Amino acid sequence: MTLATPPEEVVPLEPLEELWHDPPGLVGFLTTVDHKRLGVRYIYTSFAFFFASGLMALAMRGQLSEARADLLGPGTYNELMTMHGTTMIFLFNTPVLAGFGNYFVPLQIGARDMAFPRLNAFSWWVFLFAGIFMYSSFLIGKPPDGGWFGYTPLTSSTFSPGLNIDFWGLGIVFVGISTTVGAINFIVTIFKLRTPGMSLNRMPIYVWSMLVFSFMVLFAVPAVSLAAGLLELDRLFGTAWFVPALGGSVLLYQHLFWFWGHPEVYILFIPATGMVSMIIPVFSRRPLVGYLWIVAALAGIGFLSFGVWVHHMFATGIPPLAMSVFAAASLVIAIPSGVQFFAWIATMWQGTVRLATPMLFCLGFLFIFLAGGITGVMVAVMPFDWQVTDSYFVVAHFHYVLNGAVVFPIFGAMYFWGPKMTGRALSERLGKISFWVMFIGFNVAFMPMHILGLLGMPRRIYTYDRGLGWDGINLLVSVGSVAFATGAGLTLLNWIRAVRRKEPVPDDPWDADSLEWATTSPPPEYNFAALPVVEGRHPLWDRRPLRYATAGGPGTEGVTAVGAVERRTPVTEGFDTRPEEDLRIPRESWVPVATALGIAVLFVGLLVNAEIMAVVGVVGIVVAAGVWAWRTEEDLR
Fold first, then answer.
1. What are the backbone angles phi and psi of residue 69, rounded to the nearest 5°?
2. pLDDT at residue 108 above 80?
3. What angle do CA 491, 494, 500 make, to 5 degrees?
4. In this structure, are residues 166 and 232 in contact, taking their beta carbons and an 8 Å threshold?
5. Strand 532-533 relative to strand 547-550: parallel, antiparallel, unpaired?
6. Rounded Cα distance, 604 and 617, in Å
7. Fewer Cβ neighbours under 10 Å: the N or C end of the chain?
8. Between the CA of residue 99 and those of 120, 179, 500, 525, 598, what are the distances in Å?
9. H or E segment at 104?
10. If you ran DSSP here, which 8-state letter would residue 290 be given?
């Protein structure tokens, strides 16, 4: 393999764009396999669910803003609480992070697409249909009402006989399919499609975070899918997995749920820290301190996160020795998180910090992450946990961890990568106002919840009596919630304004260091005409202009602009980046949406107990999978 001049000197780029362009209109929307279009769809769809979830939260806070309020009844409150938590975990945080990964992982590793483009499209369609499936429960007045955790026996058919819980249980299994297949796609893409020179120790930290995220998803998500699936077997077919009178166990459900549930905290946290590790060096004008330590910390968090789930069950009567082991693991996991924290501080310490909007969101994240981490260590101590279990102290803790420590990096990424995705400039002034309103509103909303918990206010209640000392604090929490929602709305307004005003931005407005900034804004459909050669951990800081690879041996044809014309990208060895063969990138296809639609029909049939509909769904899945396999064979010829 030799080094070449820029690819536009080898082949004209206009015909290349025509070859990669999706069909216009509805056909292109339904059949695209372009990772960038799918990444944007993930982000937009997730934010639609985010704002829907926010409206539910505001309604709940309106009910709790004063004692004996009658804005919501107990049933409606339970429904909104269930769908708020379910939406934030399953329909916003996880898929929006996958959306950013879909868009930027191929760009950051110098690939032309994901390893399995059709599987990528299938994953988004399944996510969309799963979200519609769960939210359609509102149309018939049967939204889930058993809590986002779905604890048995309250969610059994005995105590919850309607369709409410079936929407939740089947929906969790449904959306789990999307998350799992997406994780497989990320792992293969990262190991096998990296550009020449990008060895493992040169990968961007964000790519490392998505790799750890994906391995964690593979081990964790099947547990919650199994829990929800077994619950539905009990409800729909009369099995007894969670029926103690018939030999089942309600604690089995909790073990399965929290075996996913606590790693899920870090499944969300790790990509968020990857975003922070990309943004802070750019706005500190120096490389990230402790690269290898941060990689080790990410892997350590991923491993240790599977050994802490029982600290959610300290009040269930588990033997003290077992609880002590999980308490110790819950304390130890703070160490790799602290490694990252100190690396970020050290990066800024001797850097030249620029307080642009993305950097402000990262700094806000540092404070929120610190507060959430401290309370996390507190609830890992068994005597303290017994005092605050099922109180608002726990609500405050997990909102600091799952909302603040994840949402703030996501908003920072929106301002950091938004110009790259849209080619439009977002308002810095409006962005900074949005940050400060969100930051102040978040802390006003959730910091006092710690006090409410210590004063004895239990979680999951829809009303309370006067004279308990909770009235004023709850009103303050509700005011902070409105402020936080207003700040988030300002970012939405900023995004809409940028897209409509069409103020173009340079290809690299931040003078950043990673490969996604080497393309146009927005990037072309083929990403890179000829693949860039990486010579260090910071390609655009190490060498400008970049050098590009040319064919120089077996399996290297895909690195060139000619390879792009033929819709090929090289497959490389897992640990280094020597090309082994070429991967043909498929064109647009109806198969992913057809397969996802078959799964949707199957789940609707199970929901309404319509055997014929369920059979039609299975037949549709089999036919679509057969066509998928046949078309894949055609592409490989």
1. -70, 155
2. yes
3. 145
4. yes
5. antiparallel
6. 9
7. C
8. 10, 11, 22, 17, 23
9. helix 94-108
10. T
Q: What is the pLDDT of residue 6?
A: 58
Mean pLDDT estimate for the chain: 91
pLDDT per residue as tens digits for the range 558-580: 777 777 787 888 888 777 777 78
The CA distances from residue 587 to 41, 117, 354, 583, in Å, are 18, 9, 42, 13
Q: What angle do CA 83, 87, 93 make, to 5 degrees?
A: 155
Pair type for strands 579-584 and 2-4:
unpaired
Report pTM. 0.94
Widest pairwise Cα distance in the chain:
80
Strands 2-4 vs 547-550: parallel, antiparallel or unpaired: antiparallel
Residue 352's φ and ψ, nearest 5 degrees, are -110, 95
Instruction: Let me know: does 548 contact 531? Beta carbons within 8 Å.
Output: yes
Burial of 256 (0-12, 13-18, 19+ CB in 10 A): buried
Q: Identify any residues that bridge with 568 across adjacent strands, giving them in sequence order.
A: 584
pLDDT-derived band at 228, boundaries 50, 70, 90: very high
In degrees, to the nearest 5, what angle opens at C-alpha 200 toward C-alphas 38 and 511? 65
Q: How far apart are CA 580 and CA 325, in angstroms?
A: 46
- Can you read off the two tokens belonging to residue 388? 């605050």
Question: What stretches of 285-426 show up as alpha helix (H) in DSSP?
Answer: 291-304, 320-332, 334-349, 357-379, 382-388, 392-399, 405-422
Contact (Cβ atoms closer than 8 angstroms) between residue 380 and residue 331: yes
Amino acid identity of residue 307, one-letter, is G
Q: CB within 8 A of 514, min separation 6: which ones?
A: 108, 204, 206, 278, 538, 539, 540
**β-pair type (532-533, 579-584):** unpaired
CB 579 within 8 A of CB 195: no
Residue 128 near residue 45, CB atoms below 8 Å: yes
Q: Helix or strand or coil: residue 318?
A: coil
* Distance, C-alpha 118 to centroid of its chain: 20
**Nearest alpha carbon to residue 8 among 258, 237, 17:** 17
Report DSSP state, residue 21: P
Q: Which of 372, 300, 305 is nearest to 336 (CA)?
A: 300
DSSP conformational letter for 1: -
Give yes or no for a contact between 556 and 1, defined as CB atoms under 8 angstroms apart: yes
Q: At a CB cut-off of 8 Å and minimum separation 6, what does 592 contact?
A: 33, 118, 119, 121, 122, 125, 628
Sign of the Cα pseudo-torsion (203, 205, 206, 210, in order): positive
C-alpha closest to that of 273 among 294, 300, 290: 294
